[in-house]
Amino acid sequence: MRITKVTTMVVENEPLYVGGKYFLFLLLETDEGIVGIGQKVTGSSFNDSNWSDFKSQINLINETAEAFVIGESAHLI
User: Which CATH number is 3-68's, of 3.30.390.10, 3.40.190.10, 3.90.1210.10, 3.40.50.11780?
Assistant: First the structure.
């Protein structure tokens, strides 16, 4: 079972923003149709950021996934 795709999603939290104003989720898909979900801490609870401020983090995730994750076994943690 190999990882075939990594997708990122930025989700805005409800006010009082417990845990931060935004959450950055990652979806890892495999060639067998299994999807894993993860979360990256954004630090968004400490400033007045908006979702587009995470473009550099999203680009870094995509570049890292392309170089080290896509095509690798999903069993390797």
Answer: 3.30.390.10
